[in-house]
Amino acid sequence: MDVKKMSRKKATVNKTHELYRGKLFSFFTEDVTLPNGTRTEIATVRHPGSTGIVPLFDDGTIAMVSQ
What we know:
With about 70 residues, the protein is an all-beta fold. The chain has one domain (about 1-65). Helices cover about 0% and strands about 40% of the residues. The protein has a three-stranded antiparallel sheet with strand order 1-2-3, with no helix packed on it.
């Protein structure tokens, strides 16, 4: 898969629900419509000052590491 030719369309957030808000992080679920029209729910941890990197390989796969 040629990453440079991938579509840059974004998902549309239909609804956001905050499940937890603490001093260090917040946890949200979001009802989203993906660029291909599929509707799904995603879960997100928001932590100000943190960074995440997701390696994307040429074949379209990603690497995930469990800590």
